[in-house]
Amino acid sequence: MSRIFSGIQPSGELHIGNYLGAVKNWAELQRSYESFFCIVDYHAITIPYEPEDLRARTREMMVSLLAAGLDPSTSTIFVQSMVPEHTELAWIFNSVTPLGELERQTQYKDKASRMESVPAGILNYPILQAADILLYRADLVPVGEDQVQHLELSREIARRWNARFGAEFFPEPQAKLTPARRIMGLDGSAKMSKSMGNTVGLLEPPDSVWEKLRPAVTDPARVRRTDPGTPEVCNIYHLHKAFSDAATVDHVAVQCRSAGWGCIDCKKVLLESMLRELDPIRERARDLQAHPERIAEILAAGADRCRVMARETMTAVKTIMGLL
Ligand code: SF4
Fold first, then answer.
1. Counting beta carbons within 10 angstroms of the beta carbon of residue 174, is it exposed (0 to 12), middle (13 to 18) or buried (19 or more)?
2. Per-residue confidence (pLDDT) for residue 152, from 0 to 100
């Protein structure tokens, strides 16, 4: 069975953008692949943060992942810093990665251009990412288009290390491109993200979801109720495609184009579809939050499983490299 690895930042509760864009897909993939899902807290400390806040966000992310359908009985779900071999392998990869490769990374240039003083961790971030994946010798990494460059660097690092030590040890992980589902924020102007304040939380109560949906941006051509619209340009229509069944999506398009209903009617139907999917997730999250010991057990079991594999990899790597 092929092995997949995927990481997610400990950003607290998931929002529907990262649920639809990544985690829902992971819940599907875990049925067909040996799966490793990692909360990458070592990546998170490359930018300023508060320790208590990081701890809380990591726990909240774990609750969200489990509630969204990641299953600890079939997948390994763990926190990166609980498996120290991630940073150990990253150091080793530092020794075979040219600086120029790191400086060429678009995400590095992007982040660094907005910082007064750039921590080395921002530059070395893709090396740790390569270590995350290669520590488990994963074959596949589910990624969106925007992460393909980082994965290419992981492949390059695997190639360089194998060539340097004359060993075909690390596989070159392949991208498993996730279906392109770029969820826009409710302001309709940017990708849904916490930093833009345009998200709907995966665990938000129904009232609060509606408070956000009601004023959400739609097709600007629909100024009056009688103006026909173009569903393709409307974020609400794209959310229908994510949450509503095919018949409802067709109905939305017809009603929109013919001005058969107003945007509020359309959003009420969307709310129903969303709650159908989100209610059970919220329910599972409530149950997990009431039993924090269960979360701790799942994390410990995941880290134990990872440590065994990580030690095997590191023993082989160190032997090949002439380290004692
Ligand atoms: S009717 Fe629905 S799809 Fe059409 S513009 Fe309004 S909210 Fe968007």
1. middle
2. 92
Residue 230's CB is within 10 A of a number of other CB atoms, namely 14
Gap between the Cα atoms of 151 and 174, Å rounded:
8
- Closest Cα partner for 154 from 102, 226, 230, 77? 102
Nearest to 10 by CA among 299, 313, 310, 305: 299
Active-site position among 24, 109, 176, 194: 194
Pocket of ligand 1 (CB under 6 A): 218-219, 222, 229, 231, 234, 236-237, 252, 256, 263, 266-267
Residue 251: per-residue pLDDT: 97
Burial of 109 (0-12, 13-18, 19+ CB in 10 A): exposed
Which parts of the chain sit beneath pLDDT 70? Answer: 179-182
Query: Ligand 1: distance of its center to the CA of 222 in Å?
Result: 8
In this prediction, residue 324 carries a pLDDT of 84
Nearest to 134 by CA among 319, 316, 313: 313
Index of the ligand 1 atom closest to the CA of residue 263: 6
Rounded to whole angstroms, the Cα distance separating 136 from 86 reads 10
The strand ranges marked E within 69-133 are 75-79
Give catalytic status of residue 318 as yes or no.
no
pLDDT tens, residue by residue, 175-209: 998 765 668 888 877 888 888 888 999 999 999 99
Could you tell me the distance, in angstroms and rounded to a whole number, from the CA of residue 262 to the centre of ligand 1?
Answer: 7
**Residue 139 neighbours by CB under 8 Å, 6+ apart:** 2, 3, 4, 171, 173, 174
Question: Which pLDDT does position 180 carry in this prediction?
Answer: 55
